[in-house]
């Protein structure tokens, strides 16, 4: 893992050096509007389609002549994989009229339909305008997907769908007890993304400790290259590398306490150390100038064009920026660097989990059709379609045989292998969307990384946000079981 002169027997480590060096001062950011409540809607669609006849070939009792409506988030993964799966549904049920649409404005397009009791049958609830999962679950607006999970898989009827999924996928869809409200279709590797070619040009390797990270950023700066960039308008991307960094320093139980909204969870020394380390990037001017004003595409574009070495992101970035990432880029992902030798978890610890959350609304007209479309998507053929078109893994545990893996995907698979059991899965972004995105992301981390707030005041602000969320009785609360 490497060591530095700071790792000596007198106990002077990175934390001590950070405490001595972190001292700079640095706009109120306009709040982003996310779905914080979703009315239950008195006007219900009582005209649900009649169920079809249940059989071995139709285990969910789909009405083959009933219409089906699907709405997909048009983001980094595109829509081809979903359209391919839709074509399979149409071939299986040729009498069904399938309406398919894509949007980046999930909340503004669909919230009125939820309120009116007329939601689509299947939704990819993702993106910056994602509807708050915790609210939807708490308001009983989602269908329990257990029948889907217990149905026979497309490829092997002797196996249930649940038995074909990657570890942790089913549990991610559970918020409180046994029901499974969400099917996370993608399997995302989060971390610090970079160009291996860019590092080679600097005669460098990926830094496995924070001293080496800072040294590499200093070296890049002399060449006119920034160390880091991030989506300044969407700073909730920062946790993709920051949260596993916190877990690495203090143990996964620190993230569990944060997820559980425990008092003083954010005051843990591991949080303080991680925040102060990231603040050094700001203090030493290693962040690409103008980053606070960039959205995700702007920051990713600057990074892909070589203006910055590192960006915290998810594995969708390879597909999202495929048009501009150079062929010789050698896209790679790194786990968080070690802070110092006292870290509780080894180098290689990273965040990987289900992404792209699909839901079937409880008031959908064709609930069975929505679940059947998901069953089709969770087949090997559909998984291969997803991986081939998005350069990302799916929730299906397999689906890569015979596919030439892209650089980023190969790197992600290698990172997962190195991590082994040291994979963390923080749940704030699933359980409390407003807290994670608007408050922790924009109002706190965004301010700190723009240089407008110091780590101590940022932690204090975040703890206050978390405490308010914990006390808000209008919000359904969740805990790790």
Automatic annotation (TrEMBL):
SUPFAM superfamilies: Periplasmic binding protein-like II. It holds the Pfam family SBP_bac_1. Residues 40-60 are annotated as: Disordered. It is found in: Cell envelope. Keywords: Signal, Transport. The keyword Aminoacyl-tRNA synthetase does not apply. Gene3D superfamilies: Periplasmic binding protein-like II. Coiled coil: none annotated. The keyword tRNA-binding does not apply. Signal peptide: none annotated. InterPro entries: Bact_solute-bd_prot1, Chitin_NgcE, SBP, TAT_signal. Residues 45-57 have a biased composition (Basic and acidic residues). Belongs to the bacterial solute-binding protein 1 family. This is N-acetylglucosamine/diacetylchitobiose ABC transporter substrate-binding protein. It comes from Streptomyces pakalii. The lineage of its organism: Bacteria, Bacillati, Actinomycetota, Actinomycetes, Kitasatosporales. The gene is ngcE.
